[in-house]
Design a protein that fits this description.
The protein has one domain. By secondary structure, the chain is mainly β. It is built from no helices and six strands. It is globular, with a radius of gyration of 14 Å.
């Protein structure tokens, strides 16, 4: 759940939510079960458990993975996603199989 300033996509709610302020909590629906999260003033990182959202398969019979996502301000490539563009929703950075 997130609330606050939407500048630079730092809340991870998608590009439609690119500016303004969210005054009531909203769920980041792009994430599965979140194990850990780190929040900064311009971007966030989260480790989620399970298969990637949008993957219709059952993870191909493999155990669930830990997935590192990043989103928000990225003007110095600080998200590790090989671009300088802000990320407005959780973007896959790394996936480790259990």
């Amino acid at each position: 759940m997130v609330a606050g300033d939407l500048v630079g996509g730092k809340l991870g709610l998608g590009k439609a939510w690119a500016s303004g302020i969210i005054m009531s909590f909203r769920e980041i629906t792009a994430l599965n079960e979140v194990k850990q999260i780190a929040c900064g003033p311009n971007h966030m990182l989260a480790i989620a458990k399970g298969i990637e959202k949008g993957n219709k398969g059952a993870n191909d019979g493999k155990p669930p993975s830990d997935i590192l996502y990043a989103w928000g301000g990225n003007w110095k490539c600080q998200l590790g996603v090989e671009t300088k563009e802000n990320q407005y929703e959780p973007t896959l950075v790394f996936k480790k199989m259990s």
